[in-house]
Structure formats: C-alpha cells, structure tokens
C-alpha cells in the first residue's frame, strides 16, 4: 500500500511529514480552484456557489483524512489509519468528480471540452478503482507489511494496492489539469 512506504522509522517520519506537506498543498490548490470558479461564476453563472463551496468542503475533508493517515501509522493504530485513508480517498474521489462536473458546466467559456473529458476520464477511473480497493481491502484478515505470493489474502492485498495506487495517481494527474486554469 501507499502507507507501507512509511511504517518503520526513519521512513515513517519522512512519510508523515511529506503527507502533511502534500495535504497542505492540496488545501491551497483546492482553495485557489474554489476562488477561481467563484470569480468566473460572477460573470457566467454556470454553477451555484453552494455547489462550489460543497466541493471545497469535501476536498478539505480529504485533506484532513490525509493528515490522519500521516499521524496514525498503519501498524501502530490500524483502525484510525484506515478510517483516515477511507476519508482521504473517498472524499478525494467525490471532489474530483464534482470538479469535473463544474468544469463541464463552465464550457466552453472557461474550459475546453478536451480538458473536461480528461478530467472526467480521470474521475471515472478513480471511482472505478476506489470500489475494488475497498472491497479487496475489507477481505484482508491481517495488517502487515511484507507479503509473499503464497500467503493467505495476498491476492486481495495485491489487487487492493494496485487500485489504491491508481486512485492516488488519479488525484495527482487531476490536479495537474489545473495548471492551465491557474495561468
């Protein structure tokens, strides 16, 4: 899993620090995106302000989940860590989906359809990967780091980890689509 990279010292300290920095950068990015949509919406009225605010709040919840993941390590407090991960990934998927919808509503004045299609594709892939990530992770009967293919639950762990990394990279690529908007 993503968290497996930071379960033992000194990596755990670096992992926690970097996740918190990433959460802070995500908060800044989401807030800038919120302000940008609000400003564009003043002249175009393409989305309700409450929808934009709701999207921001959902995104901020995901960042709080990231902070929980960073603070409560996978092996030390697994239940709290897992709740934080569920909040981070679940809220993140909802956030990028809402932002994709907002992007479509702003077309063609503030976004190109190409960018909207890319955002929606990333959202759909992330949503599709999120579901088996949860389903397979719930089938795992133990919390551990080092897995071998002959172990019980290895297949569930392997498939869940692939889906988790897919969702995580989906978030990164989605945020990269904001570059043009922020110019």
Automatic annotation (TrEMBL):
<dbReference type="InterPro" id="IPR019402">
    <property type="entry name" value="CWH43_N"/>
</dbReference>
<feature type="transmembrane region" description="Helical">
    <location>
        <begin position="53"/>
        <end position="71"/>
    </location>
</feature>
<dbReference type="InterPro" id="IPR050911">
    <property type="entry name" value="DRAM/TMEM150_Autophagy_Mod"/>
</dbReference>
<dbReference type="GO" id="GO:0010506">
    <property type="term" value="P:regulation of autophagy"/>
</dbReference>
<comment type="similarity">
    <text>Belongs to the DRAM/TMEM150 family.</text>
</comment>
<keyword id="KW-0472">Membrane</keyword>
<dbReference type="GO" id="GO:0012505">
    <property type="term" value="C:endomembrane system"/>
</dbReference>
<keyword id="KW-0812">Transmembrane</keyword>
<feature type="transmembrane region" description="Helical">
    <location>
        <begin position="156"/>
        <end position="179"/>
    </location>
</feature>
<feature type="transmembrane region" description="Helical">
    <location>
        <begin position="114"/>
        <end position="136"/>
    </location>
</feature>
<feature type="transmembrane region" description="Helical">
    <location>
        <begin position="12"/>
        <end position="32"/>
    </location>
</feature>
<dbReference type="Pfam" id="PF10277">
    <property type="entry name" value="Frag1"/>
</dbReference>
<dbReference type="GO" id="GO:0005764">
    <property type="term" value="C:lysosome"/>
</dbReference>
<keyword id="KW-1133">Transmembrane helix</keyword>
<feature type="transmembrane region" description="Helical">
    <location>
        <begin position="83"/>
        <end position="102"/>
    </location>
</feature>
<feature type="domain" description="CWH43-like N-terminal">
    <location>
        <begin position="1"/>
        <end position="183"/>
    </location>
</feature>
<protein>
    <submittedName>
        <fullName>DRAM1 protein</fullName>
    </submittedName>
</protein>
């Amino acid at each position: 899993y993503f968290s497996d990279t930071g379960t033992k010292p000194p990596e755990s300290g670096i992992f926690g620090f970097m996740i918190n920095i990433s959460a802070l950068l995500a908060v800044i990015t989401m807030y800038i995106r919120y302000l940008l949509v609000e400003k564009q919406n003043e002249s175009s009225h393409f989305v309700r302000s409450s929808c934009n605010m709701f999207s921001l709040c959902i995104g901020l919840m995901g960042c709080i989940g990231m902070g929980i993941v960073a603070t409560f390590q996978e092996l030390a407090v697994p239940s709290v860590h897992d709740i934080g991960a569920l909040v981070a990934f679940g809220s993140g998927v909802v956030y990028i989906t809402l932002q994709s919808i907002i992007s479509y509503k702003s077309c063609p004045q503030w976004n190109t359809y190409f960018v909207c299609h890319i955002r929606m594709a990333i959202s759909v892939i992330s949503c599709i990967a999120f579901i088996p990530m949860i389903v397979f992770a719930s089938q795992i009967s133990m919390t551990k780091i080092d897995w071998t293919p002959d172990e019980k639950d290895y297949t569930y762990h392997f498939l869940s980890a692939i889906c988790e990394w897919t969702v995580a990279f989906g978030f990164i690529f989605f945020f990269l689509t904001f570059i043009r908007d922020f110019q």
